[in-house]
Amino acid sequence: MEFGARDALPGSMLIVLVDLLPTALALAAYHLSQRFSDRTGIWVLMDSSRGSPDELKKTNKGRSKTNCMAKESLLKQKSPAEFFAENKNIAGFDNPGKSLYTTVRELVENALDSAESISQLPDIEIIIEEITKNKFNTMIGLVHRERVDEELYDDFETTKAREKRLAKEARMQEIQAKNVAHGKKLKEPPALKSGKGRGEASFFKVTCKDNGRGMPHDEIPNMFGRVLSGTKYGLKQTRGKFGLGAKMALIWSKMSTGLPIEILSATRGQNYASFCRLDIDIHQNIPHVHLHEKRENKDKWRGAEIQIIIEGNWTTYRSKILHYMRQMAVITPYAQFFFKFISDISEKNLTIRFARRTDVMPPAPLETKHHPSAVDILLIKRLIAETSKQTLQQFLQHEFVNISKSYAERLVGEMGPDFSPKMAVKSLTSHQIVRIHQLFRQAKFDDPSGDCLSPAGEYNLRLGIIKELQPDMVATCSSSPQVFEGHPFIVEAGISLGGKDVKQGLNIFRFANRIPLLFEQGADVVTRTATKKINWSSYKINQMQDKIGVFVSIVSTKVPFKGTGKEYIGDDITEISSAVKSAIKQCCLQLRSKIVKKLQARERQERKRNLTRYIPDASRAIMDVLEEMAQNYEPKRQRHDKEDDELLNKVASKEITEMTFGESLSQFVEQVDYEMALEYATQSGASEEPRELVYLSSLEGSYRYVDLGSPVFVFRLIT
Q1: CA 309 to CA 137: how far, in whole Å?
Q2: Whole-angstrom Cα distance, residue 411 to residue 395?
Q3: How far is CA 689 from CA 31, 630, 667, 677, 685, in A?
Q4: For residues 454 and 57, which has the higher predicted lDDT (pLDDT)?
Q5: How far apart (Å, rounded) are the C-alpha atoms in residues 298 and 273?
Q6: How many CB atoms lie within 10 A of CB 463?
Q7: E strand or H helix that includes residue 67
């Protein structure tokens, strides 16, 4: 390579030696020299072996195109199923134990929704069967293989570790022996670490059967094998959190066992039952059907039966699953649940039936329209794309709540000269849509009503608490519909005192859209309100010693969950926090009135007991005085009234004795106590006779009726 300066060129010459520069830098130097050569006199002579600048430009363009193609090839897409498979903790599948709990929860809630959608009293059967590793291997056709290299396994114990463990056990035995010798109470030995390795998994077959609507034959594959597809999407109160349902359980089954799900379903009046065995193609988010056929249905059975085999952990999540079933029985006393756990170890077998206590069901939630203050730009664009209305005024009037025809005209007039009521809604530009959104955020609209919501109802909540906890006292309260960010919500609360299986102190039971919330309780608005914002002592309740049950249910078209798992509602939302506090206080006021009356009745009983205890001594002392007066009594001398004379004559003739006098005093105490009890019963609205809870069974067959309800009872008039 040669470089030189040309004397004819004016100005100083800059000679740059380029020997090992890459092609890209050489080309940049060439462009630089072409741009500034007239002013600075920069010349760059390049090695001819690298080609001319034009050739270099072509070469570089080719390489740039290749690099761009390479970069484009690095862009990948994920299906919804693949996303949730990689982020399964979002949907509650953090570990095998919680995955078992979440699978049960999803299947039970789907079964409830299916039955309630056709106004059928839910009858749900849930069975969990433990499958040992050997049985699972037999199911999938895997031959059992003995270990060859023990040190390869996670539960392998070295000689040093074994000696250390044995020495620790020996020390513990010595300590226990000394305690026995000194007569001290034996302590439970610390649990040894399980030798179970990470690869030693537990498997469970979960079966859920219901008497609900059933599923159409052709839609079953997509209902279970395609994530983010379902029948619950829309603006209404729903039990689900993500719209995944049993699909996430199927994904977990595919990840942990590789086995498909089995569905048996039949709809009303169908003479066949649909059977489908399928799994999901996670990468394409489509169902992979193994078998899909129609089977005979002679009994005209209607409903669905779902069976799935997953990895799980019953030991650590047994209490959570049972608490979930119990709380579900509290919030849905009109449903009947049959729960069964089956194991090869007979001691672990468990059967529980949560009986139905009423046939009064809450109304089904209704789908509603969006409130103007709760929409964003993207939602407005989607509504415009989906609407069947032609003009802007019609769009505003029919696609949103609380916008009348006259108010829609006023809104259009406020939007500016570029808008008119008759303009085509499909012709709106992005800037115009932004203007509509800005006006929606600033304008004044009436709050949405709560007619679309379906709370459990005070009657059902009270009956569920009494049925499951059997408390000494219970009070319930339901708030009127309130609004948070354009979404209506209703808060129902119940407070119980005493009961079975209730610990001392506060026992919090939280529900959102009529499903129990068991995790992340400490950060929830209900927990923080009950522990920090309620002065329990002012309501005659001992927060530390009394067995207090706090039940709060929140229903809304959009529950403002916090966290990725959607397991709690934060206390930073003023509207909800205030409503929860007010509902709990209303229940506490009811309880305080009952507690005060109970304390008064207890005081009366104590007074009666004290009087009864002193009757013998009092009657003996009084009779001694009367007998002495009777001995010194002189009828001729009028020293006493006529009534006193008669009394002394009776004492003298033994007509009144110590025994008869004591009986008279006892009758008097009983009469006073009865009159005071009658006055108390009249004030509290109770009858004179003792009351007993009576549950009436519903009539068999079809009949017409009208329900007349109140917070404490439902009267059914059969016509």
Answers
A1: 13
A2: 12
A3: 107, 44, 20, 11, 12
A4: 454
A5: 9
A6: 24
A7: helix 53-73
Say if CB 328 and CB 456 are below 8 A apart: no
Cα(590)–Cα(596) distance, integer angstroms: 10
> Is the distance from CB of 301 to CB of 273 less than 8 angstroms?
yes
Q: What's the length of the chain?
A: 719
168: CB partners within 8 A, 6+ apart: none
Q: How far is CA 290 from CA 140, 209, 240, 287, in A?
A: 15, 21, 28, 9
Amino acid at 557: T
Q: Is 244 annotated as a binding residue?
A: yes
Please tell me whether 234 is known to bind a ligand: no
Three-class SS state of 646: helix
Sign of CA dihedral 397, 401, 406, 409: negative
Question: Residue 62 is which amino acid?
Answer: G
> Is 566 assigned a ligand-binding role in the annotation?
yes
Residue 337 annotated in ligand binding: no
Residue tagged 């319930």 (tokens): 476
Chain segment 658-700, per-residue pLDDT in tens: 788 788 888 887 777 777 666 666 655 544 444 455 555 555 5
* 14 annotated among ligand-binding-site residues: no
Tell me the two tokens of residue 602. 């207890």
pTM of this structure: 0.74
Dig out the tokens for 288 from the structure: 């992979």
At 410, which amino acid appears? Answer: R
**Which position has the token pair 């206390």?**
571
Rounded to the nearest 5°, which phi and psi values hold at 634?
-120, 110
Q: What's the pLDDT tens digit per position in 488-537?
A: 999 999 999 998 888 999 999 999 999 999 998 888 999 999 999 999 99
598 annotated ligand-binding residue? no
- For residues 116 and 361, the answer to whether their CB atoms sit within 8 Å is yes
**70 known ligand binder:** no
Quote the CA–CA distance of 590 and 496 in Å, as a whole number. 11
Spatial contact of 456 and 471, defined as CB atoms under 8 Å apart: no
Higher pLDDT, 63 or 427: 427
Residue reference for tokens 């035995």 = 173
507 is in an annotated binding site: no
Distance CA 481, CA 695 (A): 31
Q: Is 4 annotated as a binding residue?
A: no
Is residue 480 within 8 Å of 455, Cβ to Cβ? no
98 annotated ligand-binding residue = no
* Dihedral angle computed from the Cα positions of residues 212, 218, 222 and 223, in that order, rounded to the nearest 10 degrees: 0
Q: Which two tokens stand for residue 220?
A: 């079953």
Tell me whether residue 232 is annotated as binding.
yes
Residues sharing a CB contact under 8 Å with residue 23, sequence separation 6 or more, in sequence order: 50, 56, 59, 60
Q: How far is CA 510 from CA 286, 331, 518, 557, in A?
A: 36, 10, 7, 17
547 marked among binding-site residues: no
Distance from C-alpha of 522 to C-alpha of 576, rounded to nearest angstrom: 17
User: Is the CB of residue 37 less than 8 Å from the CB of residue 70?
Assistant: no
Angle at 714 between CA 709 and CA 719, to 5 degrees: 95
Mean per-residue pLDDT of the chain: 80
697 CB burial (10 A radius; 0-12, 13-18, 19+): exposed
254 annotated as belonging to a binding site for a ligand: no
Q: Could you give the CA distance from residue 553 to residue 311 in angstroms, rounded to a whole number?
A: 32
Residues whose CB falls within 8 Å of the CB of residue 95, separated by 6 or more in sequence, listed in order: 313
Which residue's entry shows tokens 């059975």? Answer: 301
pLDDT tens column, 106-132? 999 999 999 998 999 999 999 999 998
**Rg, C-alpha atoms of the chain:** 40
Helices (H) and strands (E) in the chain, counts: 18, 20
C-alpha dihedral (528, 530, 534, 538), degrees to nearest 10? -150
Residues 210 and 114 sit within 8 Å (Cβ to Cβ)? yes
Separation CA 448–CA 368 (nearest Å) = 10
